[in-house]
Amino acid sequence: MKVLVGAAQQLQISLDNEDNVAKASQLLNFPATGGTWNSEIGSVIKDLWTDKGIRQTYDFRDRYFQLNDTAEYFFDNIERFVQPDYIPSVEDVLRARVRSTGIDEAEFRFEDMSFKMIDVGGQRSERRKWIHCFDNVTAVIFIAALSEYDQMLREEESQNRMHESIYLFEEIANSAAFKNINIILFLNKTD
Questions:
Q1: What is the pLDDT of residue 35?
Q2: 142-152 pLDDT per residue, tens
């Protein structure tokens, strides 16, 4: 919501409700970490989310500012999230988004097979870290978000995310390092 409030200010979109102007200011001064959130801040976010100015600002996302594509889901469910006895649902977990940075490894077994999956951050600044991960690779799973066809990169706002994914996929698929490796293209986020 801080991103939306800041974007509304930058785009000079007025909030519809005068009480929400004070709430927006309160939110901007609130710590960014969710560890200190409570029902009071949840109420502020809920009220701001219903404001016509914030909704108008939301419609400009991905053209003028970056916002996680699951933000609407979390704003719509904010009252549930700030309850003291809140336990995330499967849907909540599936919609959670944590930007990958660095390299994460996960090992798991399925029947009598062992797998080691290495998740490498997709941002341009993360790609230079990949090279040492390619020893003994048996398959590459390339994940591209279909919902990003009209979004721009965070690190270069003139570059379309879908075009960047296509470029990167071509680069990986044609790399000598993966000449005899199975490549699986997984298209997600159709919403």
A1: 64
A2: 888 887 777 77
